[in-house]
Amino acid sequence: MSLIILLLGIVLLVLLITWARLNAFLSFIIVAILIALFNGMQVPAIAASLQKGIGDLLGSVVIILGLGAMLGKLVAESGAAQKIADGLMKAFGQKYLIWALVLTAFIIGIPLFYNVGFVLMVPLIITISAKYKLPAVYVGLPMLAALSVTHGYLPPHPSPLALVSQYHADLGLTMLYGFIVAIPAIVIAGPIFGSTLKQFKSQPLAAFAGKEIPEHELPGLFTSLFTAFLPVILIAVGTIIKLMALTPNVIVNTLIAISDPIFALTITIIVAIYTLGINRGKSVVAIMGSLTDAVKDIAMIILIIGGAGALKQVLTDTGISNQIAGILQGMQIHPLLAAWSIAAIIRVCLGSATVAGLTAAGIVAPLIAATGVNPNLMVLATGAGSLMFSHVNDPGFWLFKEYFNLSFKDTIKTWSIMETIVSVVGIIAVFILSYFI
Description:
Helices cover 77% and strands 0% of the residues.
């Protein structure tokens, strides 16, 4: 009976978000309460479960999400992202234009949230498309494939970060494995698939071209790259030191300490405030205003993650999660495939990659303890599933359609297929990686 209640709850969640157009956070709370009530939980216990679920999940990710948004805002507004793009274009030349753009999007996509990266990349895509007389879809889709992969696979993006917490994974190792899985996903869904799209000759709307920051106002290339990549460098150094199992001393302990994501991002924000702000003549007041705006931009994302945490806790407290784990074990479905499949189904139904990943995590998390599967790979498998076949219920679908001025049919043939390739190649790469670690 509990599993039927869960199934009906997920159906209701889909209907509330897609048909009733209810806010995702409110939908999560409503469904969590109803599932708890129909499973016989008392009202005080339900309230405690919701509070614990939201508190446990947000307590571990909200600082990182906030700092990550601040860094992204500084990188975008300072022109550091534009400088990185210009520098890579000059380094690669026209012959390897697409590869330069993919690498640009991947680098920029690590600190920037997807929507910010998308809007930031479109003017560059339109400019390059016109300059080299190339179809905008052929130029742009490989870049957006890279942005999509960073959004679905790599912390500090909201879904992967929350999945690391839910699965009790190691953030540094997840990032390391994520880079490995990201390469084939980006290459196949980006340049390889993109090379078949030259026949799509749509003309992007001029209104979306945007304005470039003058060259003399941009930060230096080294400064831009160093600042954008500093948290990745700090976290990577700490992860490598842990894997090497060096004898503890002051230096080793310090490097491990500052590799903690909270410390790494805090250090990077302080550096960025100077390198991308004060050093370029911006006042502290103006910089702080940008950081405040950055946090406002992700407020709803934080609430949605909290709502997913509430649902996950209800599933745990009612015993539904353990029932599902037992059933999946009995069916002999590999945990990685289970995580990917459930996330993919919810993604196709709901459209939101973040909601799909977090909902799936609440269902399959008990499989980690029951089967001993690598939690870092579970993060990536769930992330890959959450990117499956974007279509009309995904805001990203409409962003791509409208910005690139495509028909509905052509958007399915390009954007939706690219997202599917990213998802399928991702889970294949995760399975291959699982044989080596």
